[in-house]
Design goal:
The structure holds 2 protein chains of 2 kinds.
Chain A lengths: L3 E4 L2 E4 L5 E7 L7 E6 L6 E5 L3 E2 L7 E6 L2 E6 L9 E6 L6 E2 L3 E5 L1
Parallel strand pairs in A: 2-11
Antiparallel strand pairs in A: 1-3, 3-8, 4-5, 4-9, 5-6, 7-8, 9-10, 9-11
Chain B lengths: L2 E5 L2 E3 L5 E8 L7 E7 L5 E7 L8 E3 L7 E6 L4 E6 L8 E8 L6 E4 L3 E5 L2
The chains are: A mainly beta, B mainly beta.
Chain lengths: 107, 121
Amino acid sequence: DIQLTQSPSFLSASVGDRVTITCRASQGIRSSLVWYQQKPGKAPKLLIYTASTLQSGVPSRFSGSGSGTEFTLTISSLQPEDFATYYCQQVNSYPLTFGGGTKVEIK
Amino acid sequence: EVQLVESGGGLVQPGGSLRLSCAASGFTFSDHYMDWVRQAPGKGLEWVGRTRNKANSYTTEYAPSVKGRFTVSRDDSKNSLYLQMNSLRTEDTAVYYCAVTTVTTWALDYWGQGNPVTVSS
């Protein structure tokens, strides 16, 4: 199975900060990586697919990059509504797997 | 508007069975792969299983943790997805989400609201 390691697992940031979250895969997964945002008590929401394609309706301050084993999610200017937990998921091979999550909290 | 509404969750004893349902609307259900994902209390997301569409013979895939105990199925005539859970264990306690995958994104594009399942004596 492909393991995904997210870092950091927790980060504290202020409104307006640039935030970067990393997701590392235990083996190469090409660009088969997805990012989701989840707020407390809610279902996850798709942000980015194929590593760097922004889902329709997602603000352009979100961006994704990477291929192979290392990927990043960047929020260029953190907004109050962005405080949430972010998960990466590999869709390259079964079983599909998620990273452990990164919780973004207000400093 | 895409809607996915789960039902059938609740409290069950270890070793018991439960069947979850997911009613879909707002898209052509029969065209899409459908997935189940779960989240244990205070934990991260875990993919459970998938059913492909008719064009791909309704074949299924499972996470190792549930293979042989859980079965994903669908009824395209009812726009419904199911998760039959047998031999339940306390570690299966979680909120269970259904989700739709498109072959455009290969991501879980839309999710239901979640359905809690508690396995406890």
